[in-house]
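help with this record:
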Amino acid sequence: MADRCATGGCVDVTAENGWILVRDTKNPEREPLAYRPSAWMSTVLAPVMLRRTPPDVDVTDSYVWRGHTVEGVPQAHVFTGPEWEEFGEGVRAGEFNPEALSRGVIGQEDPG
């Protein structure tokens, strides 16, 4: 598990049973967004590494991350600007790549 927090909320990311799950700690009752590792890397990590907004995220006065649960149910989580910036810093530090998540390695680049 890895998370990055700001202003009282966190982007919480875990690897479980072949899925990358994204939760908003401000709304723990909401089901997490679910990505397969290859989709996570191409649609989330790659754009964030380049300081771009992923296609699943709408930017208004906050960052609305839309996706689906493991069961395929549409879901959205809303993050503040500071929460999104912290998440981006974690992505660029290698904290949210699938290998690091599955090993529980936080704050380290993937050696492979």
